[in-house]
Amino acid sequence: MRVKRGLASHRRHKKYLDAAKGFRGGRSKLYRTAREAVERSWMYAFRDRKVKKREFRKLWILRINAGARMHGLSYSKFMHGLTLAGISLNRKVLADLAVREKEDFAKLAQLAASKLN
Question: Maximum distance among all alpha carbons in the chain?
C-alpha cells in the first residue's frame, strides 16, 4: 500500500501559515512566501532579543548620567563613588531612582561625591 503524505504536509504548511498570520498579502496566504517571511522573522526575533538587552543598558546609562550631572557628577565618577561607598545597585534600579525617586537619587549622588573626595 502506498504512503499518502497529504496530512503531514498539510500540517507542516498550516504551521507556517498560522505563524504568518497578520502578515500582508501573499506573505500570509502563499506557503512558500509565508515560510520565507516567517523564518526571516524568527531570525530577526532571535537577533533582537540580544539587541534589546544592549538598548536597555544604553537607556539606563543615559538616565543615570542625566541624573548624576544634575548633581555635578559625570556618570563614571558617580558609579565609581558608589563602588567606593560599597553600594551595589544595578543600572536598572539606579535609572528608575533617577527618574521616579529624585530625592533618593540625590542622596546617592551626595554619598558618591563624598566618597570621591
Answer: 88
C-alpha cell at 69: 550631572
3-state SS assignment for residue 4: coil
C-alpha cell recorded at residue 115: 566618597
The CATH classification number of 6-116 equals 1.10.1900.20
Determine the distance from the C-alpha atom of residue 39 to the mean position of all C-alpha atoms in its chain, rounded to a whole number. Answer: 21
Helix locations, 1-117, DSSP H: 6-19, 31-69, 75-85, 91-100, 102-116
Cell of 3: 504512503
pLDDT digits (tens, 9 = 90+) for 26-56: 999 999 999 999 999 999 999 999 999 999 9
* Per-residue cell: 117: 573626595
- What single-letter amino acid sits at 106? A
Per domain, the residue ranges of the chain are 6-116
Which helix (H) or strand (E) covers residue 70, if one does?
none
pTM given for the model: 0.82
